[in-house]
TrEMBL record:
The lineage of its organism: Bacteria, Pseudomonadati, Spirochaetota, Spirochaetia, Spirochaetales. PROSITE patterns: ABC_TM1. It comes from the Bacteria. Belongs to the binding-protein-dependent transport system permease family. Residues 71-285 form the ABC transmembrane type-1 domain. The chain crosses the membrane at residues 12-38, 75-96, 108-125, 160-181, 265-284. It comes from Candidatus Ornithospirochaeta stercoravium. InterPro entries: ABC_transporter_permease (IPR051393), MetI-like (IPR000515), MetI-like_sf (IPR035906). Gene3D superfamilies: MetI-like. This is Sugar ABC transporter permease. GO terms for cellular component: plasma membrane. GO terms for biological process: transmembrane transport. It is a multi-pass membrane protein.
Length: 296
């Protein structure tokens, strides 16, 4: 290929890549670098006067009881949804994979919650959890278990769990699809050979199915981890971080101090810490899960 032809190809490639690169630089790289700078300031988000305070925000973060509480809530919620989302999603995938009739109907029904926005799902469940007219307490009344009625979102021992239930309900259908695709990629010959050799259903599941869908576990647990660490919508709608600070997560702390309390510099520093936390935890999880993947 002559130089003229190569230049033409380079211009064509630049024409395709250029707009995406500009968009990426303008909306990802520049804001990220800017956020890193603002995390070292006491900027309120409005004033043109930006005071550089060095590591002051980071010192406050790591000595703040409020941040420690938000970190604890974030980790607890992330662990809860990672475990239960994936357990329920795998169970649903196994169920749908074995259903012969109406399998598409079941897939659609289980996937519908995924299509509902986080704000809407939060409103729906907030009404369901209501002590006076919520469907959950009404059901307990009707079946003679009125003693179990709770202020589901007002009880500080239950608040995070109730939010976790909403997140699991909304997200399990998405992970189900990934598990289902992985299950259907397993060759029937492998399972038939194991059955001929006398393997029980449990042994086929634990020794063949689970190892062969380990790649799906890596994907789903990674997504669960990231989604758990950045959950915001449901908390905003259902509890506003309360009662007190019992459901305030790192992302919600960032929002409250950055926008409600006018401390953009501190809020941005919280965001930087969250980014580092996500990168560290995701790297550890990826290394752990990928070491257990089985190549077909």
């Amino acid at each position: 290929m002559n130089k003229l032809g190569k230049k033409r190809i380079d211009k064509v490639l630049l024409g395709f890549v250029g707009p995406a690169l500009i968009f990426y630089l303008a909306f990802i790289v520049v804001p990220t670098v800017g956020s890193l700078y603002y995390s070292f300031t006491s900027w309120d988000g409005i004033s043109p006067n930006i005071k550089f305070i060095g590591l002051g925000n980071y010192k406050e973060i790591f000595t703040s009881a409020r941040f420690g509480n938000a970190l604890k809530n974030t980790i607890a919620l992330t662990v809860f949804i990672s475990v239960f989302e994936n357990a329920i999603a795998l169970a649903l995938a196994l169920l749908v994979d074995r259903v012969i009739k109406f399998s598409n109907l079941f897939r659609s029904l289980f996937y519908i919650p995924v299509l509902i926005s986080g704000i809407v799902s939060g409103f729906i469940w907030k009404v369901m959890y209501n002590y006076n007219f919520g469907v959950i307490n009404a059901l307990l009344d009707n079946i003679g278990l009125a003693a179990l009625k709770q202020d589901w979102l007002g009880n500080t021992n239950l608040t995070l769990i109730m939010i976790g239930v909403v997140l699991v309900w909304k997200g399990a259908g998405y992970y189900m699809i990934i598990y289902l695709a992985s299950l259907q990629s397993i060759s029937a010959d492998i399972l038939e050979a194991a059955e001929i050799d006398g393997a029980t259903a449990w042994h086929k599941f634990t020794k063949i199915t689970l190892p062969l869908i380990s790649g799906a576990f890596t994907i789903n647990f990674t997504l669960s981890l990231i989604n758990g660490l950045k959950v915001f919508d449901q908390i905003n709608v259902m509890t506003d971080g309360g009662p007190g600070f019992t459901s305030e997560t790192i992302v919600y702390l960032l929002y409250k101090v950055g926008f409600n309390e006018g401390r953009q510099g501190f809020g941005t520093a919280v965001g930087v810490v969250l980014l580092i936390l996500i990168l560290i935890l995701n790297s550890i999880q990826q290394k752990f899960l990928r070491s257990r993947e089985v190549q077909i």
